[in-house]
Amino acid sequence: MATAKKAPTQTAVAAPAAKRTPNAAFMKAMTPSAALAAIVGAAALPRTEVTKKVWEYIKKHDLQDSANRRNINADAKLKPIFKKDQVSMFEMTKLINEHLS
């Protein structure tokens, strides 16, 4: 009994992705509150840069929880922003946005 060979399946060839233009709302310079300025500086920055600078601060001071790396432990400078001892990285951006105007 001869077994029929299956034709190789064709994989979808993805078209090259078009360059995305950044959303103007994310690129608008925002002024940080006094508590946030202690971490990122007082200059007006886009939201994306503020988030990058907060992550630099977190990594520099080793504030990620060792057991669950998605959680951030607040130190004296982050506590006024987070309003609690520990937040998840997903909750962090929402709390940071409350300190931008």
UniProtKB/TrEMBL annotation:
* N-terminal signal peptide: 1-37
Provide this UniProt record's keywords sorted from A to Z.
Isomerase, Signal
**InterPro entries, sorted:** SWIB_domain (IPR019835), SWIB_MDM2_dom_sf (IPR036885), SWIB_MDM2_domain (IPR003121)
Origin: domain of life = Bacteria
Q: Where is the DM2 domain?
A: 25-101
Q: Name one GO molecular function term.
A: isomerase activity
Query: Does the keyword section mention Isomerase?
Result: yes
Q: Entry's Pfam families?
A: SWIB
Spell out the PANTHER family in the cross-references. Answer: SWI/SNF-RELATED MATRIX-ASSOCIATED ACTIN-DEPENDENT REGULATOR OF CHROMATIN SUBFAMILY D
The protein's name is DNA topoisomerase III
